[in-house]
Write a structure and sequence with these properties.
4-stranded antiparallel β-sheet, elongated, alpha+beta, 12 helices
């Protein structure tokens, strides 16, 4: 072998050190490149050969260029990124909720509640004063506006969060497609894992995208023998080998707005990640925001229900001579269906697109004369469960099974939840109310008790529960029996399906009293507030601009302040949280809980960011480029390259001398 073997040793050394210098240069060039993992050359002694009775070395060889990479740290960093992504989004949404409630301003709901009750107190001191009445109406409107404003802000926050959901899903699909493409590139570069070495830069790019994916949803990564990785989330493949399955979205109606539901594109299965930005956004949109909106609606309904029940039993300065209810649906207005039918869910779907209640079996398929489906157009008004106080229209009724198809679907309803089939936006109950007819000429008043049999007995569908037609007939029959025909006050169902009560004589007016059924308030008869929730509450249209129509006297004496006193006293009534809190106490509890939860979310996000930063520092210590270390490596390989080159020069001189002497 001789000098030629020596020449080969020198050549191998020069080549090895040259490759090492290239690797050092690549590290230095990518010192600030996101996701780059430091690379190092693996130099090994070339196998020696037998030379007589001993072995002689053949120098150094380059066995590969490898990433300095810790799989365990990478997995922990993905998990930390997923938790950070979820907590960061939740923290942002809590900030939006705090802005919506604006609890520390002079426009806060708590302030408006106090002003409303103060105005009622002032009105009770001078019930005939128009100025005091106007102030009370203004404060009622301000209270309604405050509810409306918070509800609108929460709806806007939910819509904005939904837009972020859509943008996040698009980003997930983009990253998943890039991971699948990089899988293909890596497998091709590494010849399916059969070559000795990794496609380092491609793997860095893939790891960076997987890490970004982990910030958006919780996932698990499994590397295959061919070098590709599978990305699994919620038990389904997001990426498998060279295919990205991705996510799809559907837009559905939910709680008065439209939201995007997420599902797997491959099989249509619904998808609700627990972590990552998407998981945090879905949790914030569908749990946090809806929870606070539900509590806001509870307060608004409590105010409407109690104040309206008080106001319906009052007398105004201007005697009431005509009054119309809210519109009823055809099944109730046309006389076939009771004013309300109580039932409970025995079966429903995950989406809440239908309910089944055996108590509803056997009612006719249509109203008398076949003019409409018996229950179609009525409402399912939930009286218990997660969606208590909310309602959906009945799209279809099956008399054989008691199945009602709902529009829109009511996600969150469950077996055992109770509801009423009704036309009304507030529940009614078994009871009665009094119609008081007053003659101004004689100053005489006569009361007529109108019963609402809503006890569900005998067993439906053979129930004798009261229909709207029976309410009308009962009013007319009692008044005609007492006064003779024509009676001074009559009731009828209008063409647009409203209950109308009208005085037919100039000296006769009427009012209501002692309503134990809640029918008057639910039907909108002589109420202070219209609406069904915080988003729709408003001063009744017939009262706006007409303070003389405020019904704050419980008797025919216009100086009576009983109703005003009762409305003012409502401030101290424990009507919330199963009778344990007033509306203002409940509001303070909601605001307090919001503050605690927001602070907790902020603290958790900050703690998680600290954990993530520590893991990133740990990864940087292992995989990051240290310019000082690279400078040392650069000098070491430079010296080795120079020495190898000098060695080659010496061998070359020796070979030249040998050839010249031959």
């Amino acid at each position: 072998m001789g000098l030629f073997s020596a020449f080969e040793i020198g050549k191998n050394a020069v080549v090895a050190q040259q490759r090492a210098l290239q690797t050092v240069g690549n590290n230095i060039a990518n010192a600030n490149t996101e996701g780059y993992s430091r690379q190092r050359v693996r130099l090994e002694t070339i196998n020696s050969f037998r030379n007589g009775s001993f072995f002689q070395g053949l120098g150094v060889g380059l066995k590969g260029v490898e990433r300095v990479h810790d799989l365990a740290i990478e997995a922990r960093l993905r998990d930390a990124g997923s938790r950070s992504g979820a907590l960061a989004r939740q923290q942002v949404v809590y900030g939006r909720i705090e802005t919506a409630f604006d609890a520390l301003s002079d426009r806060a709901l708590g302030v408006r509640l106090s002003e409303f009750h103060d105005a009622a107190n002032e009105l009770s001191q001078n019930p005939q004063d128009l100025a005091a009445r106007r102030v009370f109406l203004e404060m009622s409107g301000s209270l309604a506006d405050s509810f409306n404003g918070i509800a609108a802000a929460l709806t806007d926050a939910r819509n904005l969060t939904d837009q972020e959901v859509r943008a996040t899903v698009d980003e997930i699909n983009r990253l998943a497609a890039e991971v699948a493409d990089l899988n293909g590139a890596i497998v091709r570069a590494e010849v399916g894992g059969t070559v000795d070495g990794d496609a380092n830069d491609l793997r860095d790019k893939r790891d960076l995208r997987v890490r970004r994916l982990a910030e958006l949803l919780d996932l698990r990564v499994v590397e295959q023998k061919n070098g590709a990785v599978d990305v699994v989330t919620s038990g389904a493949f997001l990426v498998r080998n060279f295919t990205a399955f991705g996510l799809e979205m559907d837009v559905v109606a939910d709680r008065g707005t439209r939201i995007s539901t997420v599902r797997f594109a491959e099989n249509g299965q619904s998808f609700s990640p627990k972590g990552g930005a998407l998981g945090g956004l879905l949790q914030a949109r569908d749990v946090t925001l809806t929870g606070f909106r539900h509590e806001l609606d509870e307060m608004a309904r409590a105010v409407m229900t109690r104040v309206n029940e008080l106001h319906t039993g009052g007398r105004a300065l201007q005697p009431m001579r005509s009054l119309e209810s809210l519109a009823f649906a055809a099944p109730q207005a046309l006389g076939g269906a009771p004013v309300a039918v109580n039932a409970a869910i025995t079966q429903t779907s995950e989406s809440g697109s239908f309910v089944v209640a055996p108590l509803l079996k056997g009612y006719p398929a249509s109203t008398p004369g076949g003019r409409a489906d018996f229950f179609a157009g009525s409402r399912v008004l939930f009286t218990s469960g997660e969606r208590a106080g909310e309602s959906a229209l009945i799209r279809e009724y099956d008399p054989l099974t008691g199945r009602l198809a709902l529009d829109p679907p009511m996600a969150g309803i469950a077996k055992g939840d109770q509801f009423q089939v009704t036309s009304l936006l507030h529940p009614v109950r078994h009871g009665s109310f009094e119609l008081v007819v007053h003659n101004s000429a004689t100053n005489e008043s006569n009361s007529f008790n109108i019963e609402l049999d809503l006890d569900g007995l005998p067993t439906p569908p053979a129930t004798d529960d009261t229909t709207l037609r029976e309410v009308v007939d009962d009013i007319n029959a009692q008044l005609e029996q007492f006064y003779g025909a024509p009676a001074p006050v009559t009731a009828r169902i209008t063409q647009d399906m409203r209950l109308e009560i009208v005085s037919t004589q100039a000296d006769t007016d009427f009012r209501f009293a002692s309503d134990t059924s809640g029918f008057l308030a639910a039907a909108g008869l002589n109420v202070l507030f219209d609406g069904s929730d915080a988003g729709s509450i408003a001063v009744a249209a017939r009262l706006q601009g007409h303070p003389e129509r405020l019904a704050i006297s419980a008797t025919d004496d216009p100086g009576d302040n009983s109703i005003a006193l009762a409305i003012a006293a409502f401030q101290n009534e424990r009507v919330m949280a199963a009778g344990t809190a007033t509306v203002e106490e409940f509001y303070q509890g909601v605001v307090g809980a919001l503050g605690v939860q927001s602070a907790e979310a902020r603290e958790l996000a900050e703690n998680q960011d600290t954990i993530r930063a520590a893991l990133e520092s740990e990864r940087a210590a292992i995989s990051g480029v240290n310019l000082d270390e690279e400078a040392v490596s650069l000098m070491a390989h430079q010296r080795a390259f120079q020495a190898a080159a000098r060695y080659l020069g010496v061998v070359d001189e020796l070979l030249a001398s040998l050839i010249q002497n031959l």
